[in-house]
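seq as requested:
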Amino acid sequence: MKLLILGSGPLMEQALRLGRAAGMELTVTEKAGDCPPLADYDHILPATEDEALLALVTGEKALFDRSAWGLTRSRLRTDEVLRAAGVPVPAYFPEGSEPYIVKPDRGSFGQGIWVTEDFCEVGGAVNAGFVAQEELDGPVWSVAVIGAPGQYTVYPPARLTFQGRRRTAAHCEEPEAAQALENTARAAAEAVAVRGILEVEAMHSHGTWRVTDLNARLPLFTPDALLEAKGVNLLSLLIA
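struct tokens:
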């Protein structure tokens, strides 16, 4: 099995570890201009959010759902879809209570996110196109979902650890209301109709699992946790 990985940094390193564990023949390309002939590879995996590299990921060999990616890149669009499907999310400003967590419409890895109790500041941010939700208290869980509409498999959850707003690791643990978390993750995948892989991040609040983020790509840290604790290789399962 020959796999071309597009990208650099932590996501690329994550993909390399999974590919090596699966015994694949791996090639990494960090720049669009350096990409080798795609016909030479069985599969192509984006481990990046660089639009120039993502533009190369087309056809049946691509381990990438462009439609789901385009949707989940926008927090505003994602939240509209989740709410329309009845998937629980944190309360939106001006509902809920302070403090509020304010997020840009686009961005990953905690960039551009802040928390405030200033009602006027939150209102101004919302008017400028930001998403503002009630900040929930408690751990964040990452759940990987693989499949297609009506045929999703939900894998064991991992608890994320953070330094500031940046993820630093994941650890497989049994959360409270584990079946409800699985149901919520599957409902989120159905809502965005992903074909391939989706990371669902959720928090348990007021007796309900609420989706706080979606990533239509290989997760960061969660695959390592699943491989170590459960012997589950998400990359192998994505290709299968």
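The longest strand covers residues 196-205.
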